[in-house]
Amino acid sequence: MSNLSQRSLGSTPPPLYAYLLAYGLCLVIFAAGVGLAFLLRDLLQMAMLFTPWDRYLVHVVNQASVVLLVVLLVALLVLSEAWLRGGVRRRQLLPRFARILGLLALILAAAQLLRLGLELLAGSLNLFSLLALAAGLLLYSGSRAVQPGARSSSTYQRALLVAAALLAGCTLIALPIKSPLNLYDEGLALVNGLRLRNGDLPLRDYWTIYPPGQSYLLAALFGVAGESVLVARSYDTLVRMALALSVYGIAGSLLRSWRWALLPYLAAATLLAAATFYGYAIFPALLLSLAALAAGLRATQTHPQRWLWIAGSLTGLTAFFRLDLGLYAAVALGVLLTHHWLLPGQLRAWRSALLAAGSPALGLVLLFYGWLGSNAGFAPMLEQLLLFPATGFRAVRQLPYPPLIPDWTAWRPGTDQFLSLLGDSLRFYLPLLLYALVALLLIRAALHRRKSPPTAETSLAAALTALGVGLFAQALSRYDEIHVLPASLVALLLTAWLARQIPARRWQQPWLAVPALLLLLLPALLYFVYPYARLTQLVQSYPPQGCYSSLPRAGCVATLPGQDEVVQFLAKQAPGPLYSGLTRHDVLLLNDVSLYFLAGRPAATRYHELHPGVTNTHPVQEEMVAELTRHAPQWLLLADLDPPREPNASRFSSGVTLLDDYLQSHYQRQQTVGLYQLWRAIP
């Protein structure tokens, strides 16, 4: 070696902290190796269960594997120490660390892939194995990115990583499709679709407070694929997949990176998979809302008139499923167009854009609801879709908002109340914090921007904030986890956008990096880790390949205890209408609506949904008694549910016993199956 080369390598020795960092990274590698050794050991023991070897040979193999793993760990420690120490002298510490970590991640991915295969053979899929596989692949991809000369950014590898992540998210959504039936909310979706298929008209022939877009789609699906719970769930699952993919598309445009967009996508897919709230009309409505924003964003970039017309049409279609979301989507689209055209001072372009988007939206809404009102009656439509949801619904359904600081006195050690109490508060206040931070950043950017037009990303962030505020507002009428889920999906997108606003050099400043990491940790725990753990338990209890009901109309979906027995009993009786009610109708919260669908029998009254504040009032019970007298159902199914205890007006008795008096005087109880009492008409 020349004197010049010697001076270049030896004249400036590495600082002491570089060696300390090297030994710290060496300990990290050793700890990762120990964890990987435990996983490999567990995998070997699992593989031994599939061999025909006797227990003595299995014992010998297990003991030999322990010795081998210990030798490999010692070798890993010695070689990594020498490798990293040499990297300090050559100024290649981080690339060398990434190379070793990438090798361990590749071994982890291969081991978890083999473990998944064994779990599939055993018929017991563990979603944590899938999570470990994904973590190994992501860690390997990240380690390759910091290695000099690595081609991790090639188009082929990026496409493969994105495709694998998208497929994993859709798979998660499909796994809990056989989870237990929701007797009320899912039952409403099923029965409403069934009534439309049988010729009934919503609002006129049955009482409902939701627009009938979802019901018409389900009625069409029942006509094509058959009347089955699994058919409706398959449609719902495809909608959720499309919704998660739309989150990915929005995130890609918002973050200007299709790889970073995978993080909010996977969290959204996990949230949607763990929700298991099938038949929820807000999912297709939210899908159409995000699609409208995507079309509006495209209009700001190319062919504005065509894309604005598409965005407006999608906004109008949103109102077919949920009126409130149609309004919020329209406001969000208006914010997007205002931020892009009006703020830079292009008043004429802004007016033209609003007209191009608003005309098809307003036209579709007027056409659909004009037809519905002319057939079902404008007065019932106004009462059921607007007046009661805005007044009576809140009185009997509203739940209290969680406190800013959870009441830890309610926590009992050894239970999951800790996560429940903390999660309720975070789900409520975290989106509000995110909306406020995004709004402050947007206002600051607008004040500092002079005549330069806003970027597409800031316009989209402003529109998402407006949509998120609307979605949060709709959750206030009945705050719980499922109703705040749509706002949580928007919060995921805005969290990722906020993280991207921090320059790379700022992450080296602890005063900014520590709060930012804490802000990112909260959504990760709330929107991914906790739902993923819950989803894992659900899939382990109800694997998708199993069949959990003998009822043909259930489609192997798990039913509730006693439902199969009472439906099979009714199948042996003469056909006719059915009434599914409660043992008391003066105080109520919900009833088992799904029994109408499972039994395949028409409801004997237009009030198949027993709603507090409606069916426990005197005028409605008079109407129900008249219908029961006219249709004369031979059988009643009365569920003996616990009285409502929610902190709202539903827990108070209305004092109206007209319906209960009629049922007791005209019907007689025959038998009891679980929670269900079968009553037969007195001859």
Structural descriptors:
683 residues; mainly alpha; 4-stranded mixed beta sheet; Rossmann fold; 67% helix
Report on the architecture of this protein:
A 4-stranded mixed β-sheet has the order 1-2-4-3. By secondary structure, it is mainly alpha-helical. 67% of the residues lie in helices and 3% in strands. It has helices spanning 3-10, 16-48, 55-89, 93-122, 127-145, 155-174, 185-197, 213-225, 229-255, 262-275, 282-299, 304-321, 323-342, 347-376, 378-390, 392-397, 417-448, 456-475, 485-500, 510-541, 563-571, 594-599, 618-631, 658-666, and strands at residues 578-582, 635-639, 667-673, 676-681. The chain has 24 helices and 4 strands. α12 (304-321) packs parallel to α14 and α17 (417-448) packs across α19. A hairpin with a 2-residue loop joins β3 (667-673) and β4. The chain has 3 domains: 10-153; 281-501, no CATH class; 553-681, Rossmann fold (3-Layer(aba) Sandwich), CATH 3.40.50.
Brief sketch in words of this structure:
By secondary structure, the chain is mostly helical. Helices cover 67% and strands 3% of the residues. A 4-stranded mixed sheet has the order 1-2-4-3.
